[in-house]
Amino acid sequence: MFKDRAVVTFIAGKGGDGCISFRREKYLPKGGPNGGDGGKGGDILLISKKKVNSLIDFKGKHIIKSENGKNGSGSNKTGKSGEDMIIFVPAGTIIKTFPDEKLIFDFDRENIEFLITKGGKGGAGNSRYKSSVNRAPRIAKSGTAGEAIKVILELKLIAFAGLVGLPNAGKSTLISMISGAKPKIADYPFTTLSPNLGVVYSGHDSLVVADIPGIIEGAHKGEGMGLNFLKHIERNRVLLFVIDISDAALFSPMETFLMLKKELEHYKSRILKKKILIAANKTDLLSEAEIDKRLSELMDYCKKKRIDLIKISAVKGDNLNLLKNSLFKLLHDE
Question: Which candidate, 246, 252, 276, 48, places its Cα nearest to that of 162?
Answer without folding.
Answer: 276
